[in-house]
Here is the input.
Amino acid sequence: MEKPRWWLLLLPSIVLLNLVGLCKAIESPQYAVVHAEPDFEVRLYVNSTWMSAPVNELSFEKATLFGFHRLFQYIQGANLNYSRIAVTVPVVTSIVPGAGPFRSSAYVVRFYLPAKLQADPPVPLDELHLKPYAWNSHCVAVRKFSGYAKDENIAEEAKRLADSLSRSPWANLSSTESNYSYSIAQYDSPFQFIGRTNEVWADIKVSGADGCNSSGIASY
Ligand SMILES: *[C@@H]1O[C@H](CO)[C@@H](O)[C@H](O)[C@H]1NC(C)=O
Ligand SMILES: *[C@@H]1O[C@H](CO)[C@@H](O)[C@H](O)[C@H]1NC(C)=O
Ligand SMILES: *[C@@H]1O[C@H](CO)[C@@H](O)[C@H](O)[C@H]1NC(C)=O
Ligand SMILES: *[C@@H]1O[C@H](CO)[C@@H](O)[C@H](O)[C@H]1NC(C)=O
Ligand SMILES: *[C@@H]1O[C@H](CO)[C@@H](O)[C@H](O)[C@H]1NC(C)=O
Here is the structure.
């Protein structure tokens, strides 16, 4: 049986997203690439404020849909300022395997706030159950993948990243367990069929102040 196309529910939103995309550059969080390899890179992101939507769902795709839907209402004006907020990319879904109901994964979907709202974001309406999230300066390992991010492929992509990291100088700074926490960053609307970009992100545990340089890896 054909799987339900969840994103059809978002059709009006997505058409709008595409229109917005044509009109002006879309903002993204800033980062510096501190190390690049063919199959992954290490980025240092500066501190930033995001709006986050925790979601109780068993599936990554549904969690992303429902979380994004709440965030989309927020940026469409469902906030105490009645402000419309520009779309940004990526939309990031963080996944903690085993931390959800019935040992499923726990999901949080996050939206990066435009630079001018970083310091004082409009307060979301209560019923959206959103919370601002201060993402401190942090270091992530990133693996890109194309096509659609789906329940069927994200764990495999996360495992490939963990395998690459286990052979790298970051082996001892990142979790290489098969069920570690990771995030999926999505940059495209579902109607972009080719040239799609997604990323799997794994945290690397060094403090932001050190950049992504730890004593062990400074020589690389
Ligand atoms: C990030 O850190 C800088 C310097 O510490 C600070 O001025 C700025 O307000 C911070 N930004 C956010 C969004 O927390
Ligand atoms: C939202 O409203 C509050 C209180 O009226 C105000 O202080 C704040 O600057 C507003 N924020 C934006 C982004 O307009
Ligand atoms: C990671 O730590 C283990 C034990 O502490 C050590 O044997 C190993 O060489 C380290 N690996 C790297 C890549 O630094
Ligand atoms: C990963 O899963 C295994 C088996 O399900 C479990 O024993 C282990 O505690 C999990 N590790 C983490 C970090 O959650
Ligand atoms: C990391 O260390 C190298 C050499 O020690 C230095 O050139 C670079 O600026 C550092 N990067 C960051 C992000 O701190």
About this structure: The chain is about 20% helix and 25% strand. The beta strands are 31-36, 41-45, 48-55, 91-96, 106-112, 131-135, 138-145, 182-186, 198-204. The chain has a mean pLDDT of 85. The longest strand covers residues 48-55.
